[in-house]
Amino acid sequence: MKFATIPDGSKDGRLVVVSRDLSRMAPAEAVPTMQALMERFDEVSGALLQQYDAVNRGDGEAFDPSSAHAPLPRAWQWLDGSAFDSHGALMDKVFNMEGKFKPDFPYMYQGVSDRFYGPCEDVKFPTEDDFIDFEGEFGIITDSVPLGTTAEKARGHIKLIVQINDWSLRRIAPLEMKAGFGWVRAKPACAMAPVAVTPDELGDAWRDARVDLPLNVWWNGAKFGAASGYAMSVGFDELVAHAAYSRDLVAGTVIGSGTVSNETYREVGSSCIAERRGIEMIDEGEAKTSFMQFGDRVKMEVFDPDGTSIFGRIEQTVVKA
Amino acid sequence: MKFATIPDGSKDGRLVVVSRDLSRMAPAEAVPTMQALMERFDEVSGALLQQYDAVNRGDGEAFDPSSAHAPLPRAWQWLDGSAFDSHGALMDKVFNMEGKFKPDFPYMYQGVSDRFYGPCEDVKFPTEDDFIDFEGEFGIITDSVPLGTTAEKARGHIKLIVQINDWSLRRIAPLEMKAGFGWVRAKPACAMAPVAVTPDELGDAWRDARVDLPLNVWWNGAKFGAASGYAMSVGFDELVAHAAYSRDLVAGTVIGSGTVSNETYREVGSSCIAERRGIEMIDEGEAKTSFMQFGDRVKMEVFDPDGTSIFGRIEQTVVKA
């Protein structure tokens, strides 16, 4: 199944069931919002599947992904991992943090979740001098997960998969990281692609609780990267279990993969600018690519093997606050 | 004014106006919940003040602080500072992190906010081996704060003051801190004292955007500390401005002071066990006080000069999850 949230004047918007090809939609009859869906997922999924079949047959009305909200416009909890080792190694290079402490548990921080930008919303920053960067990620949304849930059991709590742009300020990020408290100023609100999908929509590409598909990224129209989501050192199941070690996870918890990155970054490219700068430092002795300027655009999209957009497109412009 | 939230079967509970001496209450007529109050504070405060005067004159019904929810039972955002330098110095001692990077900005992390424990709820943990600790704090709740708000303007956005118990797992805390991503497993849900108060309720004790009153803490009935909230290196106004640097703060954002601590800790005691262990390491060469065991109780309460409880009492028991 595929879901989106369309504007209705409220903060939470209106949940719609979206056809596989993203062309049609119908308001979800069983639940009004994505948050309500996550609270009642197993109970209402049968009825929603019937609606999904209907929109796939052409029922409903036209769906405009570019005008949608984030599928979950606000969440009670957003926990972001950093599960791609090649990204971590390049960041250590960029931030001059090689030799730092490597934990034997997954990296994870809690970020701002009272707002997720819609897929085509402008994103505002105080100044270009903070080194504005995008980060292409995959994420999952859980139903209610009890404290102490194992990775094996966590798989059943992964109800939806989403695609995320985790906006980052690279001047501030290493300073906040060195302070040890995680990121507040360096991590403003993220954006989500317009459509959230159930794991079965990915077919064989949902493998080992990872998304085995390239995340395509363009910066100002030029292709920037197409790294695969499969290279996570820990799967989303392990990220859920990690998060649930000492807390119940509220229904609608969003957990991110961290910036999608592959060891073959010289061939596949990157999902953030900082990583390209790290590669330049290794290959050319210094970082040459600048961060974003006001007016710059970033686009992110994921396709299934027949070329259909799975989550719809993120396409955002950076503007001055 | 003073406010609390009483159980009504919903997650957000029912907002009540509470008399100054915490004996009487009346359901708030203008807004149903604390979240709604924070979204409409300036608009409805006049009407609520009339209700407050009435309960102070004996109107309404009896208020039982021990059965209340947290004043804000769930928040879209909880940002905790660490503004007491003597606490930071003792933690560096305990965690063997002396010489670590000291930022020129306030410490702050984002923590779990989809649930705040009520003042007398048991708190569950996976194991005693994680070194269970309490942390007595003051906190504030803001209305909507725009990105870029200065510390001076932030003062007007501090609508309510609360008292918080920030539960912490000390085995995990230094590891997560060294990893640089802040705390997820080491910081389960916090508790709040039953009553939130407007700054004017503190009179002269609300000074420089700090609470100039001792936070009394008892562990299993024995007095543990009474450190003053005034010794913050930055006030709550500066914490709000820090948080709002690159994000709009949603109405109902809760910001914590960090563990209340004074340089005179040998006289006034401490607001967490880890700090007492740090003092023992300095004074006696080794930490002697153990962390909490299942069945242990912690109590926290703040009084005004005439002995009236300002926020009501936190009194929690630690239990096995």
TrEMBL record, chains A, B:
Organism lineage: Bacteria, Pseudomonadati, Pseudomonadota, Alphaproteobacteria, Rhodobacterales
Extent of the signal sequence: none
Domain of life: Bacteria
Domain Fumarylacetoacetase-like C-terminal: residue ranges: 79-319
Regions annotated as coiled coil: none
Keyword Zinc: no
Cited InterPro entries: FAA_hydro_N, Fumarylacetoacetase-like_C
Keywords from the UniProt entry: Hydrolase
Matches recorded under PANTHER family: BLL6422 PROTEIN, FUMARYLACETOACETATE HYDROLASE
Boundaries of every Fumarylacetoacetase N-terminal domain copy: 1-74
Molecular function terms from GO: hydrolase activity
The name this protein goes by in its record: Fumarylacetoacetate hydrolase family protein
